[in-house]
Amino acid sequence: MKLYTRTGDGGMTGMIGGRVRKDDARVEACGTIDELNSLIGLALACAREDDKNRDLAERLTEIQHELFDCGSDISRLAPGAASFRVTASRVAALEADIDRLQAEAPPIRRFILPGGTPLAAWLHVCRTVCRRAERRVVALAGRAETNTDVVRYLNRLSDFFFAAARCANARAGVSDTEYARGTDVFRTEGPG
To answer: Among 43, 71, 99, 187, which residue's Cβ finds the most Cβ atoms within 10 Å?
Structure first.
């Protein structure tokens, strides 16, 4: 099998159920999810360097598979006929992960600057690209039928990356850098 097919030379590409222009909203959404998946590979390489982050490495690998599921769901030109792979249960699993990771980091009161350890820095890059992927899927959903659970999944996934970055810094003993000109914007949980 040859890697190149020449079928996209005219500016069209294959989706599940047909061909579309390469600048189609569906292709843009899939491409941004693919970009995110590649960046997760960099974060994963950092996570594998420290046994303290073995759980993060395992979860990042699962997320890479889940992002392929996201791409599969949104690449369907006739989504009503298919059963989707991304469901509310995937969103709930991310919420459980976020709660677990957030418990390892100190309470947050102000916005923080992206950075810290190399792993945390890559996770912050993943967070921002995930937000762009979410915007691309929202744009697609405004024009065509698609799996809206992918929007919810990506929204929660960006929160996961934020919590994971803070956790990675905490595990390494590196403090997050607060936005110095900001005020307290996050409230700690408690009565009231």
So the answer is: 43
